[in-house]
């Protein structure tokens, strides 16, 4: 449970920071970033596996690169549900999802690695 909350907080902080860097992504406040992290978690659990199954031939054909498109679709769905989040178009959603995935993965790996070293 502690790791889920940690990952959501990291996702919220990174998403909020990216909204300042990327012109095509606007968030009203940090609360929007927290809501985004929660909605993304729910969508990744419920919707993403279905999208992966339905697009499996295309994912295999592109050697897995279509998964980036699926991530952008998940971000776009989250944008639809969250009124205080505005993502201009698909390409901004793709760039936002790529940067969010990379930075969150790196920071989460660093934070969990630090905890293991302290034990």
Strand and helix map with partners:
Elements: H1 2-21, E1 25-27, H2 30-46, H3 48-54, H4 56-61, H5 66-81, E2 85-87, H6 90-118
Antiparallel strand pairs: 1-2
Helix pairs in contact: 1-2, 1-6, 2-5, 5-6
Question: Which features does this protein show?
Answer:
two-stranded antiparallel sheet; 119 residues; 5% strand; 6 helices
Describe the structure.
The protein has one domain (2-114). The chain has helices spanning 2-21, 30-46, 48-54, 56-61, 66-81, 90-118; strands at 25-27, 85-87. With 119 residues, it is mainly α. The longest helix is centred in the last third of the chain and has 29 residues, at 90-118. It is globular and about 45 Å long. The model has no long low-confidence stretch (mean pLDDT 92). Strands 1-2 form a two-stranded antiparallel ribbon.
Number of helical segments with 4 or more residues: 6
The count of strands amounts to 2
Order of helices and strands: HEHHHHEH
Mean pLDDT: 92
Taken from the alpha-carbon principal axes, the silhouette is globular
Q: Main β-sheet, in a few words? A: 2 strands, antiparallel
Ends: how far apart? 18 Å
Radius of gyration: 15 Å
- Low-confidence runs: none
- Percent strand equals 5-15%
Task: Going across the biggest sheet, name each strand in turn.
Answer: 1-2
Number of domains: 1
Helix content range of the residues, please?
over 70%
Secondary-structure class = mainly alpha
What is this structure, in a nutshell?
The chain has helices at 2-21, 30-46, 48-54, 56-61, 66-81, 90-118, and strands at residues 25-27, 85-87.
């Amino acid at each position: 449970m502690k790791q889920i909350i940690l990952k959501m907080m990291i996702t919220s902080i990174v998403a909020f920071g990216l909204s300042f860097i990327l012109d095509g992504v606007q968030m009203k406040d940090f609360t929007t970033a927290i809501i985004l992290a929660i909605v993304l978690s729910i969508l990744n659990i419920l919707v993403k596996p279905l999208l992966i199954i339905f697009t499996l031939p295309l994912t295999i054909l592109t050697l897995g690169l279509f998964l980036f498109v699926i991530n952008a679709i998940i971000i776009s769905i989250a944008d639809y549900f969250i009124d205080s989040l505005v993502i201009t178009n698909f390409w901004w959603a793709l760039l936002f999802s790529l940067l969010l995935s990379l930075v969150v993965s790196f920071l989460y790996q660093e934070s969990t690695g630090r905890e293991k070293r302290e034990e």
